[in-house]
């Protein structure tokens, strides 16, 4: 079922950082850009299913902590191998200091 799910408080994520959100057997990554915008992607690297919330976030890029694959977290696009499959991205909204993602 698709709908808006409360993922975390906006203050739980520092600017230019990521947090993990698990829901209904799935893992998501919630990002806060340097411009205080929020984004959400699948939480696991498409290469070897490592949690992206443990990766390095710089500007609009997240780097997988295992093999250094990189993705644009705003679009999900692969930026660097060994990953070759883009991340799925999800709509995000902020309401009342809470971050919601549509899944």
From TrEMBL:
Cofactor: [2Fe-2S] cluster
Entry-linked Gene3D superfamilies: Rieske [2Fe-2S] iron-sulphur domain
Top-level lineage group: Bacteria
Domain Rieske positions: 5-101
Keyword field: 2Fe-2S, Iron, Iron-sulfur, Metal-binding
Membrane-crossing residue ranges in chain numbering: none
Entry annotated with the keyword 4Fe-4S: no
InterPro entries per UniProt: MocE_2FeS, Rieske_2Fe-2S, Rieske_2Fe-2S_sf
SUPFAM superfamilies found in the cross-reference section: ISP domain
NCBIfam families the UniProt entry points to: MocE_fam_FeS
Family: Belongs to the bacterial ring-hydroxylating dioxygenase ferredoxin component family.
The protein, known as: MocE family 2Fe-2S type ferredoxin
Annotated organism of origin: Mesorhizobium argentiipisi
């Amino acid at each position: 079922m698709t709908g808006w799910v409360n993922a975390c408080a906006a203050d739980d994520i520092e600017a230019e950082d990521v947090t993990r959100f698990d829901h209904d057997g799935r893992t998501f990554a919630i990002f806060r850009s340097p411009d205080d915008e929020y984004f959400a992607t699948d939480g696991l690297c498409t290469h070897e299913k490592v949690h992206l919330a443990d990766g390095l976030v710089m500007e609009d890029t997240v780097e997988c902590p295992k093999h250094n694959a990189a993705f644009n977290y705003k679009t999900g696009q692969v930026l660097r191998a060994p990953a070759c499959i883009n991340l799925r991205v999800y709509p995000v909204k902020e309401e009342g200091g809470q971050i919601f993602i549509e899944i």
